[in-house]
């Protein structure tokens, strides 16, 4: 017996899910595309078994349907699907970054012999599109599910069982509570990052040194400002009430900082940093998509020709896998900072030990 999984919106998240399921015993993955060029791309990249432009064809006989389109299109797809003759017992789920409105939409549709369970993998990236999809995206990340009251337990278990292919950790959350929490830990940080980048962009118009000198701190806090504008327009508008409250709280926090500076209250500044430091150090272990998607090592490297090759050779000879390598702020005759990214913390620790013991003047 085969299990058919239909994925609507084979982008970063839909494509990553497809890659987790494709090729697993008895599973067929069908991708729905809203443009012919996208359908061809899904197939040529080997992300799905079949691709179709037809909603009916994708949904026909599907055991699971994943809605992975922007938040602003979720209701439309759920409504269209609810009007189709779906397979009895079919489970529809979504991956949208907000959960309250889609849970309400599903409740209003009063689906028969078909179930809706809201979902939200707490993993992602500033990149988008099927090109950015990877089966490793959800590994060790939390994956929120928002089952409606009265959902048969075996239906919930069946989705959880399928999601075990993602290697994510499932967590049940109430949809309204979910939107408040992700408002604070995901949506607000995206707004702040964008506002900060745009503030510096305006200063840079009169003096390009702003961009040129922007180093680790600016890059660390602003990576997510490069996220897809349409995806984030939909998320923020959908979570508008929560965001308006949180941005008002943010303004109060910034005003408190302004007062500390006006009053030259050094002790107050120290306390603010210490409080933040304490809270941050008690965050759960580093997980993909939450605090860091990788384990990073920053190294001051001298401006010697071939230094990158030497470092990667040492790592390669010791079978340490790098997931990324980047030179930050490298100018002629000036030491640069190299960022080495690893998927495993143990790889990062071994690399640190090995590089500490080399003759190259590397300071970690
Ligand atoms: N990016 C993240 O970090 C992240 C993390 C978790 C959840 N999400 C949620 O996942 C969903 C998809 O986000 P993504 O990052 O994969 O975006 P993406 O842009 O990579 O993928 C979106 C997909 O939807 C398709 N699409 C766009 N408009 C459509 C329309 N009108 N009709 C049909 N298909 C359409 C696109 O072709 C693409 O395949 C969103 O709801 C988002 O909130 C995103
Ligand atoms: O790591 C990133 O780039 C993300 O933006 C991932 C992130 C987040 O804010 O943590 C973004 C949106 C999601 O809905 C879930 C995860």
UniProtKB/TrEMBL annotation:
Enzyme class: oxidoreductase
Pfam families, A to Z: ACT, PDH_C, PDH_N
Catalytic activity: prephenate + NAD(+) = 3-(4-hydroxyphenyl)pyruvate + CO2 + NADH
All residue ranges annotated as the Prephenate/arogenate dehydrogenase domain in the record: 3-291
Domain ACT: 296-364
InterPro entries, alphabetized: 6-PGluconate_DH-like_C_sf, ACT-like_dom_sf, ACT_dom, NAD(P)-bd_dom_sf, PDH_C, PDH_N, Preph/Arog_dehydrog, Prephen_DH
Domain of life according to the entry: Bacteria
PANTHER family: PREPHENATE DEHYDROGENASE, PREPHENATE DEHYDROGENASE [NADP(+)]
Protein family per UniProt: Belongs to the prephenate/arogenate dehydrogenase family.
Entry protein name: Prephenate dehydrogenase
Name of the encoding gene: tyrA
């Amino acid at each position: 017996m085969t299990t058919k999984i239909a994925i609507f919106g084979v982008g970063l998240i839909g494509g990553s899910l497809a890659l987790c399921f494709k090729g697993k015993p008895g599973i067929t993955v069908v991708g729905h595309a809203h443009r012919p060029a996208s359908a061809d791309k899904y197939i040529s990249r080997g992300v799905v078994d079949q691709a179709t432009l037809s909603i009916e064809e994708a949904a026909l006989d599907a055991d699971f349907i994943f809605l992975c389109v922007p938040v602003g299109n979720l209701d439309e797809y759920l409504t269209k699907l609810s009007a189709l003759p779906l397979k009895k017992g079919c489970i529809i789920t979504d991956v949208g970054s907000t959960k309250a409105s889609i849970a309400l939409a599903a409740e209003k549709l009063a689906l028969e012999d078909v179930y809706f369970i809201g979902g939200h993998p707490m993993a992602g990236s500033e990149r988008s599109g099927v090109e950015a999809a990877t089966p490793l995206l959800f590994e060790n990340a939390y994956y929120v599910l928002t089952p409606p009251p009265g959902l048969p337990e075996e239906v919930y278990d069946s989705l959880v069982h399928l999601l075990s292919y993602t290697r994510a950790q499932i967590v049940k959350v109430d949809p309204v509570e979910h939107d408040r929490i992700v408002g604070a830990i995901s949506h607000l940080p995206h707004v702040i990052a964008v506002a900060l980048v745009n503030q510096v962009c305006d200063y840079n118009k009169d003096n390009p040194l702003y961009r040129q000198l922007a180093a680790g701190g600016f890059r660390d806090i602003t990576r997510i400002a490069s996220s897809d504008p349409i995806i984030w327009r939909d998320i923020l508008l959908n979570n508008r009430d929560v965001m308006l409250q949180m941005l008002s709280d943010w303004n109060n926090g910034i005003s408190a900082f302004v007062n500390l500076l006006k009053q030259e209250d050094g002790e107050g500044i120290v306390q603010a940093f210490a409080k933040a430091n304490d809270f941050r150090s008690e965050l759960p272990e580093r997980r993909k998509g939450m605090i860091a998607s990788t384990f990073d090592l920053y190294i001051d490297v001298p401006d010697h020709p071939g230094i990158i090759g030497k470092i990667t050779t040492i790592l390669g000879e010791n079978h340490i896998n790098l997931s990324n390598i980047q030179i930050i702020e490298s100018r002629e005759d000036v030491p640069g900072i190299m960022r080495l990214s690893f998927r495993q913390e143990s790889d990062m620790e071994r690399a640190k030990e090995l590089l500490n013991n080399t003759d190259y003047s590397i300071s970690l």
